User: Fold these one by one.
Assistant:
Number 1:
Amino acid sequence: MPDPTAAAHPAPEPRTGADDTPAAADPAAPDSAEPEPESAESAESASAGAETDDAPVLGSAATAPAIPPNAGFRLAAFGALLIVVLFAGYGLGRLNNGTAATSAPAATGATPAPSSTVIDESQPHTHGVSVPVPGANAAGAAVGGLSLSSSGLTLTPVTTTFQAGRAQKLEFTIHGPGGAPVTTYAVVHDKPLHLIVIRRDLTGFQHLHPVMAPDGTWSIDLTLAEPGSYRMIADFTALVGGAQIATTLGSDLTVAGNYTPVTLPDPARATTTEGFQVGYEGTPGTAATQPLLMTVKDAAGKPVAVEPYLGAYGHLVVLRENDLAYVHVHPETRLIDGKIKFWLSAPSPGTYRMFLDFQVAGKVSTAAWTVVVS
């Protein structure tokens, strides 16, 4: 920046050569003419002027105009040049910001926008996986319930030990990415959270709906009839930072005592439960999503009218033997000749247990089948 004393003491004009261009500064070259003596004040002023002239000038050296020797004019020119540079930088910044707003990716850690693939509950679909497309090729449906933590959410049970045959309170929380309990959930099929509890030998199936306290703690009275190792599977859609996070988390529960595993029934297409005969048509597979038609009849074999339960004519839970991989499927919104129509893609070859919840005359019943997928 120019020395403020330059206005009071103008620098001497530079010497010029025969071509009227400023002579090159060469401190080692002797001058042919003796300079007139200068006072100390003039020498100091000249030194200040020389420092100013040697300062770098913004822009191209080949095209920059020569700065007049007058220091006052020099200061004004420098100020004008600074204003031009500032405005140019502002314009470039506006241009860059405009480009970033339309093409740059969102910053890491920014709050995600609400999902654009919210489940349409009026269509058949599977929880925790993509909406099945009838007849579409698939490598097997994705599964849930195998982990305590997924999508930044973590299931934390308060207690995991129970006594056989005794009602006991089951409590748990869902913690968000920041560690705080999640307290807001989307209502899916009339409930903010669906809880499946089953023993690891695929017996003792329960489909429950706990309630949540204001602090985010879920609770329900739970009775586990027999000793053994059980799995609790929480199926929900959390609302975190304005985004819907649909996920399924699981944890083990233990009932002390002598555990005798039960052998699964052989595969069959028909079963009986609470006076109803329930059967299905179709063959689940992994290569494509396949239709399954469920029929409910009374003890005499006459079809009965099923009623909507939790927003659907039925709820189909499919659990894989050994690891209890979980798929939750919902049917089409209309009955097909009185039958409940699901679309299912099995996660992999193996043995499964299918559980169908249905409602007749205001009462909910559950039918179960063993299915082997090859």
Number 2:
Amino acid sequence: MRAMVIETFGAPEGLKAADLPDPAPGAGQVLIRTEAIGVGGVDAVIRRGTFGAARPVGMIPGSEIAGVVEAVGDGVDRAWIGMRVWAFTGTGGAYAELALADLSDVVVLPDEVLAQDAVTVGSAGAVAHFALGHAHFTSGESVLVRGAAGSIGIATVELASQGGATAIAVTTSSPQRGRRLRDLGATQVLDRDGTGDAAGPDSYDVIIDIVGGAALPAFLDRLAPNGRLVLVGAVAGYPPADFGTALLRSFQRSRSFSTFSLATVPIRDRDRIRTAQLAGAGRGGTPTPVIDDVLPLAHAAEAHRRMDAGTVFGRLVLDPGATL
């Protein structure tokens, strides 16, 4: 099979095409021929080698695919063969013509839903839904989405608006992106540092942060009394070691910080939300699949260059069947 592997961690140019043996599904796994592959912020972080545990040279990056089940491992009903599915492959393995996934991370995909829409909504929509729940968001509260131009941020804006947020502020890098986010439900558009709209509130009940990094303490200072910041990503890397000082300085405001990962959500609950969101993907449902571009699999390095440049709005998708 054709795949993209990380030959050198760091710059996007470290992503190279390779011919590899077809993988075989193990117990509880399925083998999927990919139709679309989502390119996510975590892929770029792993490729840079700047966050989390070290990965092996030659690994296949990517975590989200849509396609058709081609083979099954021990313990998996053969009726899955031929089914069209969305799947999470873990922290790697997706940038390939064939990919493995545990059956617990596979959801049947309706025939009328486009594969590229599925990999735009499949992970992002579920993260946004459960992150807002983790923050105990309720109707009538204000929400700030930090790093809103990606697929998780867009989904969070839409779901917060649908959930009755009184104000939805977003941080983004350009007026054009801000206008598009307003069309999706944002009411205030801020610069990346959280300033730039004097009409917006000074503080927020809920902050969903996809960025992390050195500026995180400044956003903790934007929490209202009893406000909650939930970190769902860290595309800018780890926050400062003393970031909790910002909470202690405002002890009497009862602000709080937490992290959130879908791995802590029971499979049954995760699949229920994901199935509902995928059923409406591209067909008037929420979240809306916002796709920046669809590129051939061999152009994965170009996709990562765009991610690093911060020019992507929504999701980049790799198509393993596209010609160069």
